[in-house]
Amino acid sequence: MIIGVPKEIKNNENRVALTPAGVAELKKHGHKVYVQASAGESSGFSDDEYVKAGAETLPTIEEVYAIAEMIIKVKEPIASEYPLIKKDQLLFTYFHFASSEPLTHAMIERGAVCLAYETVEKTDRSLPLLVPMSEVAGRMAIQEGAKYLEKPSGGKGILLGGVPGVPPAKVLVLGGGIVGTQAAKMAAGLGARVVIMDVSLPRLRYLSDIMPPNVTTIMSNHYNICEAIAEADLVVGAVLIPGAKAPHLITRDMLKLMRAGTVVVDVAVDQGGCIETCTPTTHENPTFIIDDIVHYCVANMPGAVPYTSTLALTNATLPYAVQLANKGWKKACSENEELKKGLNVANGKIVYKGVADAWGLELSEVDDIL
């Protein structure tokens, strides 16, 4: 199969979808890999490294899309890329269709085969291609939240871990999944007082067992959230419903319960956000203030640490990419239920329920296209 790796062009997206080691693995299986010139530079990988691994470089993104049967990316295509996508071309990337109706319609119209990292799902319901970036984003949420709690950044002027004789900040984490767990661990490690909420009692029991003493677990409901945000200095939104819009756990009118200078970091913003007032921002302009509350809503947080993120992502995606390249997408998805659940759009039809529900569109049976 002919595989293309374009350079990411989303604002301040510094990751690349494939490392030179990934290229070498695909070449070992007899596939042809084309990498756009300088695609890996921001992640620390030179064109020479890709060439030594067996790739050929192409100067423009147009040439990569034109030649490739499968495009491997990190983030969803943006509007300038839509015309480059060919009918029946396989795109393997993060899509988050439920947060973008224009993207959904564009992929239907282009006739692309869209296999989304975020909905590839194992039998235990874990999301193997979302986990590595969720781990990065969860840890970064605290790193960035701590920064924006500083007064020059619009925050309260609170040091997350405090100092002897001065109490540490209070951190509220909404959601006890991968993002929430990593965020709570980081905040606790820095000495903050942490509350983590979830709707699952078994999950809360597990978190209670593994977390240090400065982390408290509380059942997530509207009443408890209202109580907690009134005390919190930093709130991390870490709620995920695979392939669907995140629910709004904090609404606009709830902001008045929070103290001025509180920071909210909505990691779920690429799935619509679990804080109503959050809209996607970029690393270039990461924050905005509503009702004296600092909102950090960068939709590609791991892009700020591209070396770590690229290695972590390729470790997870490469085995699936090899299957798709070796067998073709139809056979690979027919034989692998995990990949099958990754199909969101194919042959001009939506085949993933969460996406169809998000935009009120017709859902087609995935088995009908395989």
UniProtKB/TrEMBL annotation:
Domain Alanine dehydrogenase/pyridine nucleotide transhydrogenase N-terminal intervals: 4-137
PROSITE patterns given in the database record: ALADH_PNT_1, ALADH_PNT_2
Reaction(s) catalysed by this chain's protein: L-alanine + NAD(+) + H2O = pyruvate + NH4(+) + NADH + H(+)
UniProt-listed InterPro entries: Ala_DH, Ala_DH/PNT_CS2, AlaDH/PNT_CS1, AlaDH/PNT_N, AlaDH/PNT_NAD(H)-bd, NAD(P)-bd_dom_sf
Limits of the Alanine dehydrogenase/pyridine nucleotide transhydrogenase NAD(H)-binding domain: 149-297
Class of the enzyme per the UniProt entry, highest EC level: oxidoreductase
Pfam families for this protein: AlaDh_PNT_C, AlaDh_PNT_N
Keyword set, alphabetical order: NAD, Oxidoreductase
GO molecular function: alanine dehydrogenase activity
EC numbers, comma separated: 1.4.1.1
Family recorded in the similarity comment: Belongs to the AlaDH/PNT family.
Listed name of the protein: Alanine dehydrogenase
